[in-house]
Design goal:
By secondary structure, the protein is of the alpha/beta class. The protein is built from 15 helices and 17 strands. The protein is elongated, with a radius of gyration of 25 Å. The structure holds cytidine-5'-monophosphate. Cytidine-5'-monophosphate (C5P) binds next to helix 13 and strand 14.
């Protein structure tokens, strides 16, 4: 706990963690003790509060705390703490413990909007995120002193939920029976250090300066996937035709047409270990773009279409080793013959695009696909992997897609490991 006005809410987080079954070792900064009494925190946590490196009888508490922790949650994380931690400065028990741990760290920043948006704080947060630190973003709301803005500590219940999610060990890794629905293959943070390029939204192909050929894609699914990848530690390059709310630290490149998207993707594909082509890229575009607005009086124009470059297929043909390539297939399969079957479309697309995973959805089904907040998908992998996710929020679908990506990466590293002596012929 750091010394910010939101410190009183850390008491509730502590209580929630204890209720969830955690053993909580409380550490407060000197500043925090000005906001909350040590007795309160000691009474609710699993052991007495520690504040300094010099408390008897334990002379070096930071190493014990750091080494024994499964997770360190900082509530509230102040600008000072964020700066010290980013710079690797150990000036009190809390910062020393953060440097003495290999456990995941969850920061819950809270400060005034001016501080939260200060370039130094923004840089420090970006640096920490790149190192795989988890963050529960502050929210907009009323701040101390009556101001309104972003920087208010997230809801304690959300912080507890994030902590529990980070600690939940996947069924297959824990050796317990897997749940019926596909669960996570690894803990959040499993993509730390990975660069992921995600495309989102529908492209617009101009007919004239005011009109275009487009599609109904909202970009919501692509953004949800970018958010999930970021939450699990990946650095994100988001190439999008739309601008939706996004967590800080995600780099957005705005494009409009398939050609612009292709140029943006190809320029950055070399940096990415994971590429998710969630965008609905037009397959055809007007061959000629009228330089001036076409006049109604001239009668209906004849718009001749030509194919656009297939970005995904191009990436599939010349991918870098180890890169995981994910394509989407938005189909209208319902009511059609066996040929229209989503599964066969998806498998066909795996081959034609040279992708590792295809996420297929039937956009004609109720609540599915474009512009909805829900989706239902079938994920198929070139390695035979298959997961069917019934109607769920786009965030839940994103988790399933990122699970499939993590699984593909995990299997690939296993396959790439050198054989042991016994395994050699
Ligand atoms: O069959 P279709 O080309 O529409 O396949 C859809 C998938 O291919 C999506 O992942 C989409 O982002 C990608 N795509 C592409 N370039 C195109 C058309 C689609 O990368 N020109």
């Amino acid at each position: 706990m750091c010394g910010g006005i939101a410190a009183y809410k850390a008491v509730e987080v502590c209580r929630g963690l204890v209720d969830a079954g955690a053993f909580v070792s409380p550490v407060m900064t000197r500043g925090a003790t000005r906001f909350v009494g040590t007795v309160t925190f000691s009474a609710l946590a699993s052991e007495p509060v520690r504040i300094t490196l010099w408390d008897e009888p334990e002379p070096i508490p930071h190493t014990r705390l750091g080494q024994s922790a499964d997770l360190i949650v900082v509530v509230p994380a102040t600008a000072r703490l964020i700066g010290s931690y980013a710079a690797g400065i150990s000036s009190d028990l809390l910062t020393a413990t953060l440097l003495a741990t290999r456990a995941p760290v969850l920061l819950c920043p809270a400060m005034h909007t001016e501080m939260w948006e200060h370039p130094a704080v923004v840089d420090n947060m970006a640096r920490l995120r790149q190192r795989g630190v988890h963050v529960v973003e502050p929210v907009a709301g009323r701040l101390a002193g009556g101001d309104v803005g972003s920087g208010r500590l997230a809801d304690p219940a959300d912080i507890v939920a994030a902590a529990v999610a980070i600690l939940s060990v996947p069924a297959d890794l824990a050796g317990i029976e897997a749940p019926a629905t596909p669960g996570p293959v690894a803990v959040p943070g499993d993509l730390a250090g990975v660069t992921a390029l995600v495309t989102a939204g529908g492209t617009r192909e101009p007919i004239d300066p005011v009109r275009y050929v487009g599609n109904r894609s909202s970009g919501k699914q692509g953004y949800a996937i970018a958010a999930e990848l970021a939450a699990r530690g990946a650095r994100i390059i988001l190439i999008s035709t739309v601008e939706l709310a996004v967590s800080r630290g995600i780099e957005i490149v705005r494009v409009e047409t398939a050609a612009e998207m292709e140029a943006a993707v190809l320029a950055r594909a070399g940096q990415a270990e994971v590429i998710v082509m969630a965008a609905a890229v037009a397959d055809f575009r007007p061959k000629e773009i009228a330089p001036h607005k076409l006049k109604k009086g001239a009668g209906p124009p004849e718009v001749v279409l030509e194919p656009t470059p297939d970005i995904l297929a191009g990436l599939g043909a010349r991918r870098r080793p180890g890169q995981v390539l994910v394509g989407f297939a938005a189909e209208t399969a319902s009511g059609e013959s066996a040929e229209g079957d989503l599964r066969s479309y998806a498998h066909q697309k795996l081959k034609t695009k040279g992708a590792d995973l295809i996420v297929a959805n039937d956009v004609a089904a109720p609540g599915v696909g474009f512009a909805h907040d829900t989706n239902a998908v079938l994920i198929v992998g070139a390695d035979g992997y298959e997961a069917e996710i019934p109607l769920a929020s786009k965030a839940e679908i994103a988790t399933a897609v990122v699970d499939a990506i993590a699984r593909t990466r995990h299997d690939r590293t296993r396959d790439m490991r050198p054989a042991t002596n016994e395994e050699q012929p």
